[in-house]
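stage 2 :: seqdesign
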């Protein structure tokens, strides 16, 4: 889960047999997701 104020998103990583991601790479992906969270349109009901 990543949160920026009231904006919340869930980041899911599904592994594939031949795909590898280090912990540092996952942290980088998470940080980029958090940076992009603010640019998403607001949720409307």
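stage 2 :: out
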């Amino acid at each position: 889960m990543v949160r920026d104020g009231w904006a919340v998103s869930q980041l899911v990583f599904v592994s594939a047999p031949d795909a590898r991601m280090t912990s540092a790479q996952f942290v980088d992906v998470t940080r980029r997701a958090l940076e992009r969270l603010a640019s998403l349109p607001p949720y409307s009901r």
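stage 3 :: structure notes
- The longest helix spans residues 23-37.
- Strands lie at 2-4, 7-9.
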